Amino acid sequence: MSLVVRSVLELLRLAAIFFIVGGVLSFMFINIYGVFGIESSTFVGVGVMLVVFVLYRNRLQFSGWYNGKQRKRLSTSTTRWLVAGSLVLILSPVIREMMTLIV
């Protein structure tokens, strides 16, 4: 296959991963928060997308069609910062709810 075809296939694969995995995880968190009566926000979706991005860059990009020289994992510190930030974003509705109970 040519480089252009492999790149297009990898972009389609990337979009499918983000929409399917990201959508399922976002839906799951929104429903879990809904069960407890917590209104979720857009931050949950952004946090989930950060987790999917880290997953793709550190694992999934090495099993796809594209074999370019630019493929490399995120550094350990970058991975830790992104995952920590995404956890804060995912848990932000819970944190907001706790802050309203305290105040």
Automatic annotation (TrEMBL):
Q: Answer yes or no on keyword Transmembrane.
A: yes
Task: Indicate the transmembrane segments per the record.
Answer: 12-30, 36-56, 77-95
Name recorded for this polypeptide = Uncharacterized protein
Q: Which UniProt keywords apply?
A: Membrane, Transmembrane, Transmembrane helix
Q: Which domain of life is it from?
A: Bacteria
